[in-house]
Amino acid sequence: MDVKEQILKIGEDALAASRALAKLSTRKKNAILEAMAEELDAQRAFIQAENTKDLEAGKEAGLNVAMLDRLELTDARIDGMIKGLRDVAVLSDPVGNEISTWNRPNGLEIRKIRVPIGVIGIIFESRPNVTCDAAALCFKTSNAVILRGGKEAIHSNLAIAKAMQNGGKAKGMPDNAIQLIPTTDREAVKVMCQMTDYLDLIIPRGGEGLIKAVTEMSHVPVIKHYKGICHTYIDAAADLPMGWKIAENAKCQRPGVCNAMETLLVHKDKAAEFLPKMGEILEARGVELRGDETVCRYIASAKPATEEDWHEEYLEMILAIRVVDDVDAAVAHINKYGSGHSDAIVTQDEKAEKTFLAEVDSSSVYVNASTRFTDGAEFGMGAEIGISTDKLHARGPMGLEELTTYKFVIEGKGQIRE
Amino acid sequence: MDVKEQILKIGEDALAASRALAKLSTRKKNAILEAMAEELDAQRAFIQAENTKDLEAGKEAGLNVAMLDRLELTDARIDGMIKGLRDVAVLSDPVGNEISTWNRPNGLEIRKIRVPIGVIGIIFESRPNVTCDAAALCFKTSNAVILRGGKEAIHSNLAIAKAMQNGGKAKGMPDNAIQLIPTTDREAVKVMCQMTDYLDLIIPRGGEGLIKAVTEMSHVPVIKHYKGICHTYIDAAADLPMGWKIAENAKCQRPGVCNAMETLLVHKDKAAEFLPKMGEILEARGVELRGDETVCRYIASAKPATEEDWHEEYLEMILAIRVVDDVDAAVAHINKYGSGHSDAIVTQDEKAEKTFLAEVDSSSVYVNASTRFTDGAEFGMGAEIGISTDKLHARGPMGLEELTTYKFVIEGKGQIRE
């Protein structure tokens, strides 16, 4: 079998599995998730032995320390996967929920009901725990899943998938509900992206390069997360101590993640009062500052920012700062340079707040809070398959509901169309 | 300017328009729709003169009678467009509606709010009234729209778009909110399909060839409507007179549309009783019947069906009929050969009903009613931009809500992430 045939067979099997999954009760799905958790625990030594193969190959291939760290399945990380499975079992199952119901004058009753999407492909890079997390969320929502991980984690991914399959099977999980593509051939991704007969959705998880490649190759709908170029805007009516605290948190609390602030915007009337102390706070935290002319006047250590800085997702302790004329200019800057992820205004003025919240075209818009809250857990969704910067069909943090679609169920008593 | 530059400029202008549209009040949008209706009426002679150019060119190019009919803008059709604009003005505006609201333990208030999608591309074929209908729905939901119609209707489309633009502009419609691509160069479609910086969504409307081409070319998300291979299944527990009536209606009331029945499935225990009379009824209506062996035994005039017949969207007075063992076999047939559009079961048995409604993976599933009801107006949506056989993000009839997405609005009092 060549790669194409192999992947198409996986797709065909996944479609069949998705039909069987649609019939499972929530109780049964939860029992299967628990059985997966137990099997993962029982297979800990095997999983770690397989993980060691990947780590050794990675060292030989010259992976850097950060990549090797992402790859490693410590006991704590395996515990994390096991806990993750149990957490997902506890979450309420959206499948079958009624979104709305109405009656037509001719007596037809129309119900809009949540249903699984069908077959979901997850294309990811080096973190092997994605295998478990993503498969659990897809399974809980009765979607069949096809996982394609990075080649550097192939042994680990196969070991985790095997434990989930074996654990689940013992409790009646349909065959092929969770499949991991065993080949590391790059052709496999291309075939996945084009098998519209079997795949309903692809969620790529990884760097911008991976996501761009998948989007350009794909005829299957893709929900993607490109970048997080997040802004905080300090308005003319800002409570400045609140602004300092929020900006420090948004930049420094965890700078390497997508909801961290990359650009700080400051109303011109507050620049003189706000910037010097902000500069001190950020310098003390070791943040490199790049600003426009006004910023450089108030913060001696700031370097001049270039046009590229406004486009940059630093993901490290660097911050671009710009002074703007008013809330409209802040909105225009964000809509031009932002990535539609998370943006905040700090203000006590209702009008500025209203303008900002209505006009900033991002998935999460904040007033008087840190952008660091954009996250499935922080939003109370319980679990997260990712954060979407797309508009269709899921936007922002994606939990279980975002892994479903809907159908219309129409009940009649023999109505025909006149 | 070459075609690519021309289309990219249109995209850039549409994006700017979408920012302005997001600020319009519902009242203002409705006044603009009314002004468009008035201008369309005022420009009736001009529109019809331009339409005559298309009709003459069409005759010369050898278009058939049906195509020429679709192209023609009679007074009644112009009245229809004018009424359509006024109907859309009356519909409630989903933009700004709260989908849900909740509070987090840390005091953050999270609201999920409906917002416009942004810029929508409509690629359509020869019916010029789509220009008006689609633009009105996009405008009402504060989306900028880029229309690309068929070359045979170019004069008509430009005349309609011009009337809408002039009418709207007089009442404050933002520039470039509604744009029609003036060139008929095919390259324009390709550029549209790949301008992900400006377009958020493409809705192709037309035959399967157009839709396939757009889907394969597009890097922009596409919501599409491929085919309607709709089924009616007569269960063992069917009320037979109801079954005869529903099947006749689903096939004959308007056979050329997507929600008409193409295949009739009959439980084997009811075949002897149901089929002969069904055959008589359909023959009397002039329907050509193609059936499996059992069907041909009970209906003398039926021709033997081939595998291709189960895949066929006839869109005319032809019907495929198959006898199946039980509801599970009916579901399996529909999920294999159907197009995810509309399928019905006729039964008085709750268990069969439940199985069918849960397991048939179509956007609209019916019990004891004709599939002909799948339609925005029949569902009470007031207007319809199309019927989606996709799963993301809109499924089934699409009204105004389906032209929106959402954003999360988070209000705090200075919360930072610990």
List keywords for this structure.
four-stranded parallel β-sheet; globular; homodimer; 418 residues; Ald_DH/histidinol_DH (chains A, B); NADP (chains A, B); Aldehyde Dehydrogenase, Chain A, domain 1; seven-stranded parallel β-sheet; cytoplasm (chains A, B); 15 helices; alpha/beta
Helix/strand layout:
Two copies of one chain form a homodimer.
Chain A lengths: L2 H19 L4 H17 L1 H17 L4 H7 L3 H16 L7 E6 L5 E8 L2 E6 L4 H12 L3 E5 L5 H17 L7 E3 L6 H8 L6 E5 L2 H10 L12 E5 L5 H13 L8 E7 L3 H14 L3 E4 L1 H6 L4 E2 L2 H5 L6 E7 L2 H11 L4 E5 L3 H10 L4 E6 L16 E3 L7 E3 L5 E12 L3
Parallel strand pairs in A: 3-4, 3-6, 4-5, 7-8, 7-12, 8-11, 9-10, 9-11, 12-13
Antiparallel strand pairs in A: 1-2, 2-16, 14-15
What can you tell me about this protein's structure?
- The structure is a homodimer of 418-residue chains.
- The first copy, chain A, has 2 domains: 3-224 and 398-410, Aldehyde Dehydrogenase, Chain A, domain 1, CATH 3.40.605; 230-373, Aldehyde Dehydrogenase, Chain A, domain 2, CATH 3.40.309.
- The N and C termini of chain A lie far apart (54 Å).
- Chain A has 15 helices and 16 strands.
- Chain A has 418 residues and is of the alpha/beta class.
- The first copy, chain A, has helices spanning 3-21, 26-42, 44-60, 65-71, 75-90, 129-140, 154-170, 187-194, 208-217, 240-252, 271-284, 293-298, 307-311, 327-337, 350-359, and strands at residues 98-103, 109-116, 119-124, 144-148, 178-180, 201-205, 230-234, 261-267, 288-291, 303-304, 318-324, 342-346, 364-369, 386-388, 396-398, 404-415.
- In chain A, helix 1 (3-21) crosses helix 8 and helix 5 (75-90) packs parallel to helix 6.
- Chains A, B: It catalyses: L-glutamate 5-semialdehyde + phosphate + NADP(+) = L-glutamyl 5-phosphate + NADPH + H(+).
- Chains A, B: InterPro entries: Ald_DH/histidinol_DH, Ald_DH_C, Ald_DH_N, Aldehyde_DH_dom, G-glutamylP_reductase_CS, Glu-5-SA_DH, GPR_dom.
- Chains A, B: Residues 4-284 form the Aldehyde dehydrogenase domain.
- Chains A, B: GO terms for molecular function: glutamate-5-semialdehyde dehydrogenase activity; NADP binding.
